[in-house]
Amino acid sequence: MRLRLATGLALAALPVGLALAQGPQPTASRRLRKSRKPWRRPPACSPPTAGSRSRSPSTRRGSPRRWDLAPLRALTTPTAGKLVGLEALLDPLLDNLAGRWQLWFQAPEPNLGRARAIEVRLRNGTVLRTRAWLRSSTPEEVAAARIRALLLSATGRPEGTLPLRIERSISEGQLVLHLAVAPFGDPAPVAPGPVRLSWAFAADEGEPTVHHEMAPGIEHAGQGWSRTLTLALPPGARRLAVAVDDLARERWSGTVLNLREWR
Fold it and tell me: Which CATH superfamily is domain 140-262 in?
């Protein structure tokens, strides 16, 4: 099965024999019997009682299962995509993409990593089918997911593409982190934007809470960047995940620090 989204083509592998929009398909033996025997009205029967057991047509042995498409429709609706269940419908859909309009606008606060709700109307008030939201750089939800993934990772290796280095120390019972991004190449210079710092502590119990803080951005990639982050150590904290997001270039890096040796 293939999903055509507003921003690309997504492929989803489904079990063999699923009937998407056409319902269960008859087997070859059933089609053969049906072609040889005249049609007869099925005998009347009473509804099954509470104690009886029956199978729905979609779960009988030998017939394809029906698949609930609601999750896929929930994915394509806010992105103005379209669900394609038949291979024959894919080529016409791709041909129709040339008739789509692409609009641009300048946000008053670019590169803040927020998801913006959007609606497009004609002058007569008609609402056009379009994406339900747009993003300006990496949203906070993505940064939070990265932090949680770092805490769950067993490797402990840094992730991302920014050359990030972290030095830590303890001062008056607080954890002081010196974050530094080494100079790096910037093949396509962009307008400077802010940097987002994200972090979360992990303890033996409870879910980690992800925090975010905006900092001045990287003006020139060739000059690097640095920032000091001071955090209070919560009781029972064992690990700390920290990530730095360059929102202008949409590059990031993160790592996990083991706090047990600092106790």
Answer: C2 domain (2.60.40.150)
